[in-house]
Amino acid sequence: MRELRSDHHLKSLGLHVSSAGYDRQGVADHANNLASKIRNNLTSSLKAIGVDILTGFGTILGPQKVKIGSSDNIVTAKNIIIATGSVPFVPKGVEVDGKSVITSDHALKLESVPDWIAIVGSGYIGLEFSDVYTALGSEVTFVEALDQLMPGFDPEISKLAQRVLINPRNIDYHTGVFASKITPARDGKPVLIELIDAKTKEPKDTLEVDAALIATGRAPFTQGLGLENVDVATQRGFIPVDERMRVIDANGKLVPHLYCIGDANGKMMLAHAASAQGISVVEQVTGRDHVLNHLSIPAACFTHPEISMVGLTEPQAREKGEKEGFEVSVAKTSFKANTKALAENEGEGLAKLIYRPDNGEILGVHIFGLHAADLIHEASNAIALGTRIQDLKLAVHAHPTLSEVLDELFKSAKVKEHASIPELPKHYTSSSGGDEHIQNPVKEGNRLRGITTGLIMESRRILLVLIYFFHDIYRVCQRYLHLLLLFLLS
Ligand SMILES: Cc1cc2nc3c(=O)[nH]c(=O)nc-3n(C[C@H](O)[C@H](O)[C@H](O)COP(=O)(O)OP(=O)(O)OC[C@H]3O[C@@H](n4cnc5c(N)ncnc54)[C@H](O)[C@@H]3O)c2cc1C
């Protein structure tokens, strides 16, 4: 919508569109139809592979025992996985009416497009909705408790995102303030938002807007689950688990046959993280031990252009480096140098690599730019498989593609020539169950490859020395042979 309405953007591509508009109900219907299509497809797939679906609220009655609904429908299972997810977190003092003061659950239905909407919270959900609402013509005001917008992102990426996604758009913001009270619109009055200073708690301002979207995070949905029946105490509502998603009880012991995945354990509140944790549990209960490396799980923010990231931010990496005594380096490439991005008039973008120059380990990758959410997987797979930058540098990317942004990024990193091989992470495990048996076949492969490469380089060096040696002998002999010939001829 934004591109269609931008004369400048279209003109630069040589295009002309007379006028662009949208039908709100049509947009909402498209989103709803898509969601129900995906839901139906997934349900059919589950049934097709033999999954029984029992509908009702589940309560844990004891080990390996779940009650479904309020009836006496009790089922037993060898293993139980809790995956009860999360609900929008609404701070104290905020009155949600679902019409003028809404959460993301309401916003997804797009029942209205307010002229002026305040978005409370500038995390990825708030940012994505600001992208949607401004494209549809709303004016947006951000309310953020921390001192800068998008505090969860790498600072350099937030700065660029602010320059591209906030400043040129119909968006203003208040940072360092809490929305202490929000009253829905009623009796012809607008939505009232009372702001207080986040540090001093002094009143700062009152906003009057058409609507407010509360995007202050998600809270785990773990109430009424019967956790007390297995002696589990939640921590801020989250179910405590170990690195294998096994539930930990109030005494710090593992509850046998009980796992918790997804938003309810709070490790990483993303759909694909929940799914990866589920796969990890299935691996374990079917006899193959597995520990998921959460630092290899990518995240994306679906704005225009997109933002994506995996691993540590630069400040996190520097802190880790200081603590553990290793050097941290940063490499960057711009989308401006990418042919495909330029062809699409989308040169505004940055890819940033945070790495260890001593061994070529990737610590984090952050991308802002066209299709960033698709581009991140080369980096996240590399982290998951333990691939080093010196190996990635040699990979070939098709031209012209956006993937060349990452190609350039890895090629521009300066890994020390005789880089040591990074330590094995604990991501790949044997099926024996103990931590002490943890192995990583890919890393082992890399390590062997490293040793082999070292041997080959060493033998090459020896061969070169020998060639020079024989070459010198040959030259000496040649000179003497020459002198001998001259002597004989004279
Ligand atoms: C606006 C928005 C945008 C998002 N965008 C993205 C994105 O782009 N990418 C991404 O990866 N993630 C995104 N997320 C996050 C993602 O939706 C969650 O991380 C993911 O859904 C968590 O999966 P889950 O299985 O843990 O829980 P959920 O998807 O929340 O599912 C839990 C289910 O369990 C049911 N349930 C709860 N308690 C019980 C009980 N006792 N008995 C029976 N059933 C129960 C619930 O009704 C629900 O259906 C977004 C979230 C929001 C709100």
Automatic annotation (TrEMBL):
GO terms for molecular function: dihydrolipoyl dehydrogenase (NADH) activity; flavin adenine dinucleotide binding. The lineage of its organism: Eukaryota, Viridiplantae, Streptophyta, Embryophyta, Tracheophyta. Its cofactor is FAD. Residues 25-278 form the FAD/NAD(P)-binding domain. Residues 297-408 form the Pyridine nucleotide-disulphide oxidoreductase dimerisation domain. It holds the Pfam family Pyr_redox_dim. It catalyses: N(6)-[(R)-dihydrolipoyl]-L-lysyl-[protein] + NAD(+) = N(6)-[(R)-lipoyl]-L-lysyl-[protein] + NADH + H(+). It comes from the Eukaryota. One of its GO terms (biological process) is response to arsenic-containing substance. Homodimer. Part of the plastidial pyruvate dehydrogenase complex (PDC) containing multiple copies of three enzymatic components: pyruvate dehydrogenase (E1), dihydrolipoamide acetyltransferase (E2) and lipoamide dehydrogenase (E3). Its EC number is 1.8.1.4. Its main location: plastid. This is dihydrolipoyl dehydrogenase. Keywords: Chloroplast, Disulfide bond, FAD, Flavoprotein, NAD, Oxidoreductase, Plastid, Transit peptide. It is found in: Plastid, Chloroplast stroma. The keyword Transport does not apply. Lipoamide dehydrogenase is a component of the plastidial pyruvate dehydrogenase complex (PDC). Belongs to the class-I pyridine nucleotide-disulfide oxidoreductase family.
